[in-house]
Amino acid sequence: MLLPIFGHQSTEPEGPTKGHKKSRNLKTRIKSFLSNLTPIRRTLVFVVILFHVFLLWYLTLTIAHNLSLSLSPRAPPNFQAGESRIVVNIPPKTYGRLPNKGKSNIPLKTYGSLPNKGVSNVSPATHHGSLTEKGVLNLSHETHGSLAKEGVSNISSTTHGSLSNEGVLNISPETHGSLGKEGVLNISSTTYGSLPNKGCDSGRVYVYDLPTMFNYDIMNNCTEIEPPADKCDKNLNHGLGPVAREFAGMLPESIIPAFYWTDMYWGEVIFHNRMLNHQCRTLEPESATAFYIPFYAGLRLRKYLFDNHTAGERDWHPEMLVKWLQEQKWWKRSNGSDHFIMFGRMTWDFRRRGDGDADWGTRFLLMPAMQNVIRISVERSIWDDLEIAVPYPSIFHPKSEFDIIEWQEFVRSRRRNHLFTFVGGGRSKIKNDFRAVLKNKCLNESSVCRHVDCSLNNCVDGKTEVMAAFLDSDFCLQPKGDGLTRRSVFDCMVAGSIPVFFWRGTTYLQYEFSIMPEEPESYSVFIDHDEVRNGTDIRRVLERYGKEQIERMREKVIEYIPRFMYAKPSRGLEKTRDAFDIALDGVLRKYKDHMQSGRIGTNWNKI
């Protein structure tokens, strides 16, 4: 397009003149030209000039954009030009490589490398990860999962699964799942059961500084806890016991530091240590919602349960504790109704009704002063509203969320050669002992049942036969223990084996606050013990479960592992609540419920 020419053309001859003369003549000519124009024509000239400037700017941008597209990588097929979506497909059994075009497929042991643009590059020292820029995945040791912007994944230990917008993945603590087509999240059954920590919304806890005779002296006099046995190694690692190095060669080397030979009755020490370091502990009793009494009642009782000890000896420490508590200002304020205690033994060991020396246990819980105190124990009375049941300490104590995920993947991928297993021995002193019934049934079905005889010292610390049996079997038979509950239930489930119960009180009626799944059939099998005695074939019952159903049930067991284990760090895990955290939250919730119903300072058992 050409500019129109108005006025007379110059008749001045062109010739070789100097630059500054040309500039001066040009300015004079422009001024003369514009002065000869009418206002309307002058406006029209300016409009035409502006149009040419705009046209030049537009052409420059278009050329630059086309040049950048020709130099950049092409969008993946099935995506429209300019879309920033990324497809991530993380199946339940994989964790680590991005093989092509932004698709994530992460196996346990490969931890992956994608060298460029949408490709994961994971060094041996970095395990789980984050997509940094434009789809490049860097998996760090402590991170596990969220896609931020433009397909960028920042996978933190706090996140495990949801899509927000434009293909952004934010993975919540309760889900792991997979991303399907065009950024759509498909959540698999791998929800891992990790409950997020909720801070201190429910309140804070004051820990009594008891005289050492009630806790540390008991623990430190470890040779007297269960004479003639020496229990001193159980004090290692804040009550978790020694590291189970005997699992070397059987378990992945990287996960062995998460396993300890923990005594099943050492829960009082574990709880005390965790409570001392808990984020919701307060040093100011005025601001406390609840008060924790760190008395090692179970460890103290253990010494006096056997041999020739009197009822008075068993009751002496509890009586001294009650006397001390009743002198405390905060006890007097509420009559103990905002106090709680943890027992590492069954509640029945503290409910002796008679006063004869031959009667079992102590009468601690039947003392009038204890009637308002909330009790945590490894087996509760289902008729007592003040009691909360917690899992027995097992042998798995992860130090991080990564330990949990690594162990879950290991037990999920195990090849299991036996249909079921039974760990235990017959007890000849008990008439019609049900364990002997199960032992005989297992031995008679040796092609499908693996038996570990605990009467031959196969189940003591340092022996790996129990773990090997559970890892090798789809199902594990779980009769009741000395009470209704049994530590073996949790050893079995930690190994990814599906428990078979014969009494409903073993698990179904014991645990609250989501420690176990609400639907028993989703993770376990129930066969009434009387039916077994009357001839029900355990093998035939278990063979009715198909492969897919067994996998679903095992996945539910694996999902709940974080909820019934006790973490290694004294402060717990950063973002995952374990059995201790769930129990403490249950105490505060129970106290709040009773406070709202007006039960504070009264004998709740009589209401």
TrEMBL record:
Protein keywords: Glycosyltransferase, Golgi apparatus, Membrane, Signal-anchor, Transferase, Transmembrane, Transmembrane helix
Please report the record's description of how this protein sits within the membrane. Single-pass type II membrane protein
Localization (cell) = Golgi apparatus membrane
What does UniProt give as GO cellular component?
Answer: Golgi membrane
State the family named in the UniProt similarity comment for this chain.
Belongs to the glycosyltransferase 47 family.
The protein, known as: Exostosin GT47 domain-containing protein
Tell me, what is one Gene Ontology molecular-function annotation carried by this entry?
A: galactosyltransferase activity
Superkingdom of the source species:
Eukaryota
TM annotation in the entry: 44-64
| Species this chain originates from | Rhododendron simsii (Sims's rhododendron)
Report the residue ranges that make up the Exostosin GT47 domain in this protein.
200-540
What InterPro entries does UniProt report for this protein, alphabetically?
Exostosin, Exostosin_GT47
Q: Can you supply a Gene Ontology BP term from the record?
A: xyloglucan biosynthetic process
